Each structure stands twice: as C-alpha cells, then as structure tokens.
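Re: beginner question about structure tokens

> Can someone show what the tokenized structure looks like for a real chain? I only ever see the sequence side.

Sure, here's an example I had lying around. Input first:
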Amino acid sequence: MFSQYSGKLDVSGLDTSSAKTMRSMFEESHIDEIDISFFDTSDVRDMSFMFRLCKTKELLVNMLDTSNVEDMSDMFAM
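And the corresponding structure tokens:
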C-alpha cells in the first residue's frame, strides 16, 4: 500500500477494521513518522514484511492487536 513511499504520510483516517493482511504495507518506505497505534488490527492475519527495510525516525505501534496474526515473518527485517 505504501511500499517505497517517501515523504510525509498521515494515515489517521484509514479504516483498517476489515483488513486481513498488512503484508509489506510500509516495506522499503522512507517516512519520518509512522503512527499506526490507532489501527484496528483485530482481524489481521498477515503482518509479514510490514516494515521490512523501512527507514523511519519514529514508529508508533504500541496499541496494535496482534492476537489473530498468524504470520509476522520478517516484519521488522533490515
């Protein structure tokens, strides 16, 4: 979705309540701050490669619900 994106990014209006995958969502992106602490991830099953090779100064993921995630492989791989 935002793979290889560069610049400022505001995802505060993004409705993720029915998302099943976030695979490679921010892979190889260059974003100063990524705040997805408000994302509804209760139905997400795949977060693999989500932040792979992502370059960011601040990553806020403290409230993510990962209880149903089955694949987090290489989620933060550098």
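Each token stands for a local structural state, so reading them left to right follows the chain. The radius of gyration is 11 Å.
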